[in-house]
Write a structure and sequence with these properties.
The structure holds two protein chains of two kinds. Chain A has two domains: 30-233, P-loop containing nucleotide triphosphate hydrolases (Rossmann fold, 3-Layer(aba) Sandwich), CATH 3.40.50; 242-452, Phosphoglycerate mutase-like (Rossmann fold, 3-Layer(aba) Sandwich), CATH 3.40.50. Chain A is 39% helix and 14% strand. Chain A contains 15 helices and twelve strands. Chain A has helices at residues 42-55, 65-72, 87-110, 125-138, 152-163, 174-191, 223-232, 251-254, 266-282, 295-302, 327-333, 335-343, 356-372, 382-393, 448-452, and strands spanning 30-35, 60-64, 115-119, 141-148, 205-209, 214-218, 242-246, 288-291, 309-310, 376-380, 409-416, 419-426. Chain A has a six-stranded mixed beta sheet, sandwiched between helices. A six-stranded mixed beta sheet of chain A has the order 9-8-10-7-11-12, with helices on both faces. Chain A is globular, with a radius of gyration of 25 Å. By secondary structure, chain B is of the alpha/beta class. Chain B contains 15 helices and twelve strands. Chain B has helices at 18-31, 41-48, 63-85, 101-114, 128-139, 150-165, 199-208, 227-231, 242-258, 271-278, 303-309, 311-319, 332-348, 358-369, 424-428, and strands at 6-11, 36-40, 91-95, 117-124, 181-185, 190-194, 218-222, 264-267, 285-286, 352-356, 385-392, 395-402. In chain B, helix 2 crosses helix 3, helix 9 (242-258) crosses helix 10 (271-278) and helix 13 (332-348) packs across helix 14 (358-369). Chain B starts with 5 loop residues before the first strand and ends in a 7-residue tail after the last helix. Classes of the chains: A alpha/beta, B alpha/beta. The A-B interface holds A 14-21, 24, 197, 201, 213-220, 223, 226, 229-230, 233-234, 261, 312-313, 323, 352, 358, 361-362, 369, 372 and B 173, 177, 189-196, 198-199, 202, 205-206, 209-210, 237, 266, 269-271, 274, 285-289, 299, 328, 334, 337-338, 341-342, 345, 348. Chain A: In the C-terminal section; belongs to the phosphoglycerate mutase family. Chain A: Homodimer. Chain A: InterPro entries: 6Pfruct_kin, 6Phosfructo_kin, His_Pase_superF_clade-1, His_PPase_superfam, P-loop_NTPase, PG/BPGM_mutase_AS. Chain A: It comes from Clupea harengus (Atlantic herring).
Chain lengths: 459, 435
């Protein structure tokens, strides 16, 4: 997650300064450079990869040169702007690329960025040389991602999903837009020089053919490039839906206790039944169902009457010494810990327990497998669901621990264009509220009432 | 993991690392819990043709030789079928040259008939230095060349490679576009990956893309003796005892003397490993994944107390130490899963010193030394002893270096009686001495 510079002071304990399954950056930042004709999925890959890297803790930002062009040339007329013999336009485009590069430098040097995705066609050797030079002068590593596709159906779908609604085509009707865009692609084809396996054999890159049926990977230099390659090889664009929900209301939920491994309350069982009906009504082909290893998610899945897979990685956050306590008890027994948690809920680790940051690390294989899969229902827990949701909706580390994930509500996520459509479906079964907002006073010196102000009601 | 079993088929000229890859991949898959076995057709050939005379056996116009080789491949495939269909195997690695399209088609048909998925792993390499090193490391010591001197063996082997070259049909971008495969070029400089079908193939590709053959050493040790160790208590997060601190100092001296280039040092996030690393005066990286196994309700107890308070659990653990999970804690099986990213990064790295804990070290060691789930929880990993692992040929050389600082023994063997009905003394029989 992109970390804000002034995080509140957290008392140092023997805790992690670095999550070492995320690459250690005592060394160089990495420039990830996209290559490919228009409508080959470069921006889709750029945004998705950036979202993933930020989620696993690598501060990453996209620099979309088309955006710079739109800022420079207020109104887009037509494809002629992109003609290779349009000298005026060429000058502007080159200036935009340079401006984006300069911002990459600023991001690395002044904003603690670790990876920058340079999203443009970068289809000529000349343009790529400029980038390589810039990186070399500044000590940045470079990794190219080239997307090659000649399937007209895929390209047409691409144009439909993201080009027709682009600011460039706001005043055009559909046919005009498509015709113009296809001519735009032709402009690039003339000068397109793909990465060459001989001439560019010293560069580090991955070539993605036809949306992932084939990959060519050359000279992976380090851990982060290896993770990027693995991620890219696991994502797909097949339409599908991911359903996220928590277990049904549990006995411990009812009495306001956190953690533990209790079973469902009567209302929780009702929810499980309702969930089963809902799932059937959705008529989802080939739905996979995943739960944690804890009773309450398993009992919820049992009611669905379908096969389900248990993941230990989906277990709720371990509250360590605070397991099974109410917030009132935590305030009474561990007032300092309670305050520290409110100061930095993402990084705070319960004594003998986990932090949200730890959770993200443990959930990474789940996200990877979710990317590989198609239709999946994940029955999990509040903190876990917040982490997964933050990944899909690109929420920051600050927002993540406060995302609202109420009981008895299913979130239906459908990938669309460059993001995710979310539908929230309440299954109309009452449940306690388990969401505790950040209180106004997070100081260690605060009064118990101030700490407990935002605790939701319970028995 | 998956429903269909998977048949991994190696492809490549001799001395391209097929067996190295087969064995390493098999070791990795078994360690992460995917029952895998390799079937080396050369082995079948050696059993069939007791004595290897010369490269002539492999000449493409040696009809007798061709017949035998074909039979051996069939016998191996038969065993593959048995392993995947009747013996609960999930993955079989069919290790042979498989250099002709015809041979590969036969295998593909076999797989289809039996409902196996097929994934090809081709190794392509033309670097003479690499091929020579390969021959030196694993061919000269092969049963085929026990009675030859080095020069004779090398010369014969080179001619053997030649026999395959003329009929070699590499996996082709167009002709083989419907197959699932990874082509490894020049020991990992470049990879071509085609049509990854499922999760296990994706993991295999990721693994193959992270391993390398650059010589290096991995040092494994535990933290120095801790205060809890001395008291015979398990888990917790205590600091080092005086002897533990002494060990940390000696470890620092040992590391210095080894004069290791570019050594990375990793610890867990528990005090005792961090304090040990602090004594080395070099930068180190903390991994939460290296934390000791979570003993849940038994954290910080002595074995005597566990027997007292949780006699049932204690017995269950002795019955299946690998899979047993402490209530509110972890099992060794869980540990392996949490350590997988550590292993993956160890594969990527070169010289590394890992300062960890008893159960963690057992899991890592089991990976490197190909120990089964049954053996793993009983591997001996004493305090104050460094294990130096150096990859050699198809495996790992282990040197055990005791740094001459006494420490308690923390190794509890499996007692004879593991029944729930056993007496307390029987359960505590193998508990090591402590304060």
């Amino acid at each position: 997650m992109a970390q804000t510079p002034n995080k509140p002071q957290v008392r140092k304990r023997f805790r992690c300064d670095s999550i070492a399954s995320v690459p250690q950056f005592t060394n160089s930042p990495t420039m990830i450079v996209m290559v490919g004709l228009p409508a080959r999925g470069k921006t889709y890959i750029s945004k998705k990869l950036t979202r993933y890297l930020n989620w696993i803790g690598v501060p990453t930002k996209v620099f979309n040169v088309g955006q710079y062009r739109r800022d420079a040339v207020r109104t887009y007329k037509n494809f002629e702007f992109f003609r290779p013999d349009n000298e005026e336009a060429m000058k502007i485009r080159k200036a935009c690329a340079r401006s984006a590069l300069s911002d990459v430098g600023t991001y690395f040097m002044l904003e603690h960025g670790q990876a920058a995705v340079f999203d443009a066609t970068n289809t000529t050797r000349e343009r790529r040389e400029i980038i390589l030079s810039y990186a070399k002068d500044n000590g940045y590593k470079v990794f190219f991602i080239e997307s090659i596709c000649d399937d007209p159906e895929i390209i047409a779908e691409n144009i439909k999903q993201v080009k027709l609604s682009s600011p460039d085509y706001i005043d055009c009707d559909k046919e005009e837009a498509v015709a113009d865009f296809l001519k735009r692609i032709e402009c690039y084809k003339v000068t397109y020089v793909p990465l060459d396996d001989d001439k560019d054999s010293h560069l580090s890159y991955i070539k993605i053919f036809n949306v992932g049926s084939r990959y060519l990977v050359n000279r992976v230099q380090d851990h982060i490039q290896s993770r990027i390659v693995y991620y890219l090889m696991n994502i797909h664009v097949t339409p599908r839906t991911i359903y996220l929900c928590r277990h049904g209301e549990s006995e411990l939920n009812l009495v306001g206790r956190i953690g533990g491994d209790s079973g469902l309350s009567p209302r929780g069982s009702q929810f499980a039944g309702a969930l089963g009906k809902y799932i059937k009504s959705q008529s989802i082909p080939d739905l996979k169902v995943w739960t944690s290893h804890m009773k309450r998610t398993i009992q919820t899945a049992e009611a669905l009457g379908v096969a389900y897979e248990q993941w230990k990685a989906l277990n709720e956050i371990d509250a360590g010494v605070c397991e099974d306590l109410t917030y009132e008890e935590i305030q009474a027994n561990y007032p300092e810990e309670f305050a520290l948690r409110d100061q930095d809920k993402y990084r705070y680790r319960y004594p003998k327990g986990e932090s949200y940051e730890d959770l993200v690390q443990r959930l990474e294989p789940v996200i990877m497998e979710l990317e590989r899969q198609e239709n999946v229902l994940v029955v999990c827990h509040q903190a876990v669901m917040r982490c997964l949701l933050a990944y899909f909706l690109d929420k920051s580390a600050e927002e993540l621990p406060y995302l609202k994930c109420p009981l008895h509500t299913v979130l239906k996520l459908t990938p669309v264009a460059y993001g995710c459509k979310v539908e929230s479906v309440s299954l109309n079964i009452e449940a306690v509220n388990t969401h505790r907002d950040r209180p106004a006073n997070v100081e260690v010196s605060r009064e118990p009432e101030e700490a407990l102000l935002t605790v939701p009601d319970h028995i | 993991m998956t429903n269909c079993p998977t048949l991994i088929v190696t492809v490549g000229l001799p001395a391209r690392g097929k067996t190295y890859i087969s064995k390493k991949l098999t070791r990795y898959l078994n360690w992460i819990g995917v029952p895998t076995k390799e079937f080396n057709v050369g082995q079948y050939r050696r059993e069939c043709v007791k004595i290897y005379k010369s490269f002539e056996f492999f000449s493409p116009d040696n009809e007798e030789g061709l017949k035998i080789r074909k039979q051996c491949a069939s016998a191996a495939l038969n065993d593959v079928r048995q392993y995947l269909t009747d013996e609960g195997g999930q993955v079989a690695v069919f290790d042979a040259t498989n250099t002709t399209r015809e041979r590969r088609d036969t295998i593909t048909r076999f797989a289809e008939q039996n409902g196996f998925k097929v994934f090809f792993v081709e190794s392509v390499c033309e670097d003479p230095a690499v091929i020579n090193e390969n021959i030196v490391q694993v061919k000269l010591g092969s049963p085929d060349y026990t009675h030859c001197n080095t020069d004779e063996a090398v010369e014969d082997f080179m001619k053997r490679i030649k026999c395959y070259e003329n009929s070699y049909q590499t996996l082709d971008e167009v002709l083989d576009r419907d197959l699932s495969y990874i082509k490894i070029i020049d020991v990992g400089r470049r990879y071509l990956v085609n049509r990854v079908q499922d999760h296990i193939q994706s993991r295999i590709v990721y693994y193959l893309m992270n391993i390398h053959i650059t010589p290096r050493s991995i040092y494994l040790c535990r933290h120095g003796e801790s205060d809890m160790n001395v008291k015979g208590r398990i888990g917790g997060d205590s600091g080092l005892s005086l002897r533990g601190k002494d060990f940390a100092r000696r470890l620092g001296q040992f590391i210095q003397k080894q004069d290791i280039s570019d050594l990375k040092v990793w610890t867990s996030q528990m005090k005792r490993t961090i304090q040990t690393a602090e004594g080395l005066n070099v930068p180190y990286e903390q991994w939460k994944a290296l934390n000791e196994i979570d003993a849940g309700v038994c954290e910080e107890m002595m074995y005597e107390e566990i027997q007292d308070h949780h006699p049932l659990e204690f017995a269950l653990r002795d019955q299946d130490k690998y899979r047993y999970r402490y209530p509110k804690g972890e099992s060794y099986e869980d540990l392996v899963q949490r350590l997988e990213p550590v292993i993956m990064e160890l594969e990527r790295q070169e010289n590394v010193l890992v300062i960890c804990h008893q159960a963690v070290m057992r899991c890592l060691l089991a990976y490197f030394l190909d120990k089964s789930a049954e053996e793993l929880p009983y591997l001996k990993c004493p305090l104050h002893t460094v294990l130096k692992l150096t990859p050699v040929a198809y495996g790992c050389k282990v040197e055990s270096i005791f740094l001459n600082v006494d420490a308690v023994n923390t190794h509890r063997d499996r007692p004879e009686n593991v029944e729930v009905s056993r007496m307390a003394e029987e359960a505590l029989y193998t508990v090591p001495a402590h304060q």
